[in-house]
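Form 7-S
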Amino acid sequence: MENAGLRAFLAVILSMAILFGSQYLYTKYYKPKNIPAEAPQDIIKKEEKVVLPQPQQVQPVQRQTPKQIVKDAQYKEILVENDVFKIILSNEGATIKSVELKKYKDKNGMPIKLTSSEIKALSILKDGTVNYSKIIFSIDDSRGSFKDSNQAMVVFSYSDNNIFLKRTFTFNKADYVIDVKEEVNGMDSYYVTLGKDFGIYQKEDSPHWGPVILKETDRIELNPAKVKDAVTYKEGVKWIAQEDKYFFSAIVPVSNLSQFIVMPYNGDAVTGVELHDGTNTYRVFVGPKEYDYLKKFNVGLEHIIDFGFFSIISRPLFWFLKFLYGLTGNYGVAIIILTILIRIPFIPIVNRGQKSMKHLSELQPKLMQLKQQYKNDPQKLQKEMMELYRKYKINPMTGCLPLILQLPVFFALYKVLIIAIELRQAPFMLWINDLSSKDPYYVLPILMGLTMLIQQKMTPSTADATQQKIMLIMPVVFTFMFISFPSGLILYWLINNIFGIAQQFYINKKIKKTA
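Output:
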């Protein structure tokens, strides 16, 4: 019984090690389940399987002139630029070729560019092929700039004997959203696709990349490599998207969309929506995962940001972190303040726990006497130990209770610091110029390990010599495990340790005075 608190503490520490280690391996060697939703089996059973040609039968877009083309039509690209992006449209299939995000830079300081390869974004799939992406549309881009308006418009049209297609793109001056209107006759039904990689900038270090669907309130992620059969989703779908850690593209229905589809394509996955003859309207989002911006559209797009199991805690922490950034102008400083403020409500609980552990360590000689006295009578030993605890008003579990109570908050903040695009390339001070990346000189992980070791040395222990040696391994394990983690997360842990050291020093000093 005297080691119950220690065993619980070890269990918590090991659980944390497993959690963070698995998260690191997950993002480094991404191999998730096909659909990791709350009830994946039920979801799969409810969805309708569709038969499409095998991936090798779907030919990639070729820049060539099809037979249906009108005389003298030529390939052309159209640039539309607003306050947040530069988008290049192509009259080959009336598609989106690329989107350059003005506010987000790559490692070389160049604007992030989201491109669509092989199957261009908004390609038309008919009968399992992409041959309609070869059609050269006529263009009306007379209103394709924002010179005299807050909106720009580009119209593509094509007509043949039995088919009429007209696609109108409408852009707003300061938005990542594109309104699309399609007037179609003679197609019966067809699919419009985001392609297989439009909206995906970087697959490395992404908790998830690839297709994601919001169905009712369930966020359904799919691993592209594991999509072996085409799956359709009909009722309750709010949007379908392609995502990575910080960026995404999505189609959001406005009218007349019957079903959404994810299908395999050469070891990858293609997403799209089914449309029919008549007038179809939908919105295309392409850009960063900015929570406040996405939430204002009131279509659930903010759920593209996955706050994890403790989202009910993560969202308020995320809001408060941004609030503190508004006051300080530095996300590193905001993390430090948030860490301290989070610890304050737990001070009384932690104080009681630390006092209990201190008293428990002082009680060890008496506990050892009982252990020797009743070594052949375990039941009597447990009874006498309980009597001793009651006499001195000690609960051996109190020492690890503060850590257990803080875990949901820690995990929630951990998720925020991992996924928040606001921390991307956000500088702190000195050599830390990107809180979303690892410390290039490993100073923060080493300091974190040292403070963890100091805190462990200062904390009273009821463990024997062997158990104490085992515990000394934990700071080393955590240091190596965190060495490649985002510096913003390690900064949080470091400040948390420093706060814990100060609190333990105060408790030890107070107990010494009253002794």
